[in-house]
Design goal:
heterodimer, A: 10-stranded mixed beta sheet, about 20% strand, elongated, B: alpha+beta, 7-stranded mixed beta sheet, 4-stranded antiparallel beta sheet, 13 strands
């Protein structure tokens, strides 16, 4: 057993030392695999970033109420009377004075140019009341100040401020016939809120001819478990035709289509590319074995077993692909992690600002792919090397 | 031609290596074809836009409605032939959001006149004009749900609830095709008057107008005149040529085009390296043989041509097969019709692919070919001795 292990180690080290003699081919294999890994990490970091932008990392106790049948806030509609009935439902957290933590909100779309291209994009604009910030406990003003009610003032989510032109504190944006002053930049507010612009709903309603009502109600629950009671009370109320769910559920539902699409494309492209790189690795390793035919035969003649030879060839292939994989992953990480982008979410029809996110899990996954390519790429040439009849191989030039 | 046999036997010598190289090139071009197809479906609408058509929408954003009365006012403007109303209906079939497709109420007669690239048999055209609840569906959409003329389709609309909150029912009276492959036939068009009479709220609200102008050269001027007409009204408009409108829409998808180009480039760089390396290796191994060829009187230029030809044959066999496979897959239809309604391998990308095949053959072969050409006969013959 010890002998067998020491054979493996010495043959493997021997193979590794001969790599410089074949450096052209070895580097090509490594670069081929680096390419696969970089594309894999790059594409999937888009999906990760998008999902992160859509996921609530903050409070889990916020519920959203929409008109039954609405598939986005845009297609929802609630009257003032309905929002009052919703605020009376059980399960909602209350202030010491007994006022419910609910926020009735208006949701419209405005056109603002993107900073990167200068072309128009659908930016979501939310009309809120003073309760909105209390409902979302992770809401925080990062720069400037909060809006004053009754004024044409807006605050911009950090993602929106980065992606769309004019969203700087102190500047004015012109929408429709109204000028709005940007007074602050905020973070939090639950997932996609950071891609939005917020203003006072009482100012937004007349500007958009929406005096008749609101589109959604956000409520802070006593605890996330109260959602069932809350939902039950609303859905059994004959005066209401609404649906209620936790904001986290709602957001993940809203992002399924786009994340699914990007991930689908990502796995598909990487899968094909990995196949291409596998062929490249096989080519390299077959040539490596062919070039070393006599060496290998000599080792066999000296008494080295077949399995140490097989393992050493696979080991060499694995080392090459891991080196390539690490280089590709590092390149993707340093060039792409944090890269700012925005795209339209088909489901909500609005722009979502997000940053490419290279997660450790993604890197680990990519290295795993590289290892699989390496092992597969070495396997068949290794078997061939071990099977060479010693006498014929020694005679070969 | 007489050297073909020589090239062929060279390729056959290391069958496994040739096969592996061919396969990796095949995959590179398959990927190229599919990525181009996806890219085209993001931006495809732009290429089919008519130069003599404008789109008028609410200035604030596309989701805001315009009044029905705008139609007559637009049509009165000098240079405008006629205007067609459109509404985003957002129909949901069988309560499943993944069954998404574009559903747009419009004025049938004016719509068919404005969009001659959609072809509908005469009888079906007549049926649509006569049936209030009639709807026409695109070929792709009809195939997707196995719909045929005469079917009755219930749709729910979260934007436009039907009176009494019941489902909207539409009778399919026709199936339209596109004269061009880039025509989007994944949608459904219904009648605006049917929508207006059945909707529970929002009577007289139009999403946007398509405006046919008489003279494409006057597009900017007419667009400005339309916007001026509604300036400072509660319904200010933004009018732009159809192409610009589609472009703006495509750009909403954001940096996807750039990302796809980046992916394509890295795929190509990688494959080029792998193929180039294989070619170089092949030539290196044959040094002695090339020496013999030269000693027999093959000129330097002929040796160069032979090596280049060999790499071109590999590039062409693998590359064309990959492009053909991509074409076949694209012809099979979109895997996600809800998101990528137009799905075909556009001719300009096919041409680009063919050019890339030749470029790959040349670039991969040129270094080893030059090496072979410069080889001294004596050195070559001595090398492996």
């Amino acid at each position: 057993m010890m002998n067998w292990l020491s054979q493996i180690v010495s043959v493997s080290l021997f193979s590794l030392r001969t790599i410089p003699a074949r450096k052209g081919a070895a580097i090509t294999t490594a670069i081929g695999i680096a390419g696969v890994v970089a594309v894999f990490v790059g594409v999937l970091s888009i999906a990760e970033g998008f999902r992160a932008a859509m996921t609530v990392s903050g409070p889990q106790d916020v519920a959203i109420v929409l008109r039954a049948g609405a598939d986005s806030e845009m297609t929802s509609g609630l009257t003032r009377e309905e929002t009052r009935l919703i605020a009376d439902a059980p399960g909602i957290a209350r202030t010491p004075e007994g006022a419910p933590f609910t926020s009735s909100e208006l949701f419209v779309m405005v056109n603002l140019p993107k900073r990167s291209t200068g072309t128009d994009a659908n930016v979501p604009m939310r009309g809120v009341g003073k309760e909105a910030m209390a409902v979302r406990s992770d809401f925080k003003i990062l720069e400037g100040r909060n809006i004053e009610l009754g004024k044409n003032e807006v605050i911009a989510g950090i993602g929106a401020a980065r992606s769309f032109a004019g969203l700087d504190v102190g500047k004015k944006i012109h929408i429709g016939m109204i000028d709005w002053e940007v007074v602050g930049i905020f973070s939090g507010g639950g997932g996609s809120a950071e891609s939005e612009i917020w203003t006072d709903s009482a100012v937004l309603q007349p500007a958009y001819n929406r005096q008749e009502g609101f589109q959604s109600v956000y409520a802070k629950l006593i605890s996330p478990q109260d959602i069932d009671q809350f939902r039950g009370a609303l859905e059994s109320n004959p005066q209401l035709k609404v649906k209620a769910m936790l904001q986290s559920e709602w957001l993940s539902e809203q992002s399924t289509m786009l994340t699914g699409f990007i991930q689908g494309i990502g796995y598909f492209i990487t899968g094909l590319m990995a196949l291409g790189a596998l062929f490249g690795a096989l080519n390299t390793m077959y040539s490596a074995v062919a070039a070393r035919t006599r060496e290998i035969a000599t080792l066999r003649a000296l008494g080295f077993g077949a399995s140490p030879i097989v393992l050493s060839v696979m080991f060499e292939s694995l080392v090459l692909s891991l080196a390539g994989g690490a280089a590709g992953a590092a390149a993707a990480y340093f060039t792409l992690n944090g890269y700012q982008a925005s795209t339209i979410n088909w489901q909500s029809f609005s722009q979502i600002a997000f940053a490419f996110t290279v997660t450790p899990a993604l890197l680990a996954n990519a290295i795993l792919w590289a290892a699989v390519i390496g092992v597969l790429g070495g396997l068949f040439p290794a078997i061939r090397a071990a099977r060479l009849p010693i006498a014929t191989a020694l005679r070969e030039i | 031609m007489k050297f073909l046999a020589l090239i062929w036997s060279n390729l056959k010598r290391k069958k496994l290596r040739t096969a592996l190289t061919l396969l990796s090139i095949f995959i590179a071009f398959l990927l190229f074809g599919l990525l181009c197809t996806i890219k085209e479906s993001f931006t495809g609408g732009v290429t089919m836009a008519g130069a003599d058509r404008l789109i008028t929408r609410h200035k604030v954003s596309l989701i805001m409605s315009l009044p029905e009365a705008h139609r007559v006012k637009i049509e009165r403007i000098n240079g405008v032939a006629y205007a067609v109303p459109f509404v985003w209906f957002n129909g949901i079939y069988q309560d499943k959001p993944e069954n998404f497709f574009a559903t747009i109420p419009t004025d049938p007669e004016a719509f068919l006149k404005m969009y001659p690239e959609y072809t509908l048999p005469e009888a079906e055209k007549k049926a649509w004009l006569e049936t209030r609840s009639g709807a026409i569906v695109g070929r792709t959409l009809a195939d997707r749900f196995q719909w045929k003329v005469g079917d009755r389709i219930p749709l729910m609309s979260p934007i436009w609830p039907h009176t009494g909150d019941t489902a909207w029912e539409f009778d399919i009276v026709g199936i339209f095709d596109g004269t061009k492959k880039s025509a989007d036939t994944s949608g459904m068009y219904m009648r605006y008057d049917y929508l207006d009479e059945g909707r529970a709220r929002g009577d007289g609200e139009v999403g946007w107008y398509g405006v046919q102008i008489a003279d494409p050269d006057r597009a900017t001027e007419v667009a400005a005149a339309i916007d001026k007409e509604f300036e400072n009204s509660p319904y200010e408009t933004k009018t732009e040529p159809e192409g610009a409108f589609m472009q703006g829409f495509a750009q909403q998808i954001g940096d996807m085009g750039t990302i796809l180009t980046a992916i394509l480039s890295s795929v190509f760089f990688t494959i080029l390296l792998v193929a180039g390396n294989t070619m170089a290796q092949t030539v290196r191994e044959r040094t002695e043989e090339i020496g013999v060829l030269k000693a027999m009187g093959f000129t330097n230029e002929l040796v160069l041509a032979l090596v280049l030809a060999e790499s071109s044959v590999i590039a062409m066999v693998g590359g064309f097969a990959g492009l053909a496979a991509a074409w076949l897959i694209a012809a099979g239809g979109s895997p996600v019709p809800g998101m990528l309604p137009i799905f075909y391998f556009a001719p300009h990308y096919v041409a680009l692919g063919v050019a890339l095949v030749f470029a790959l053959g040349f670039v991969a072969g040129i270094l080893p070919a030059l090496q072979a050409m410069r080889l001294q006969i004596a050195v070559a013959l001595r090398r492996n001795a």
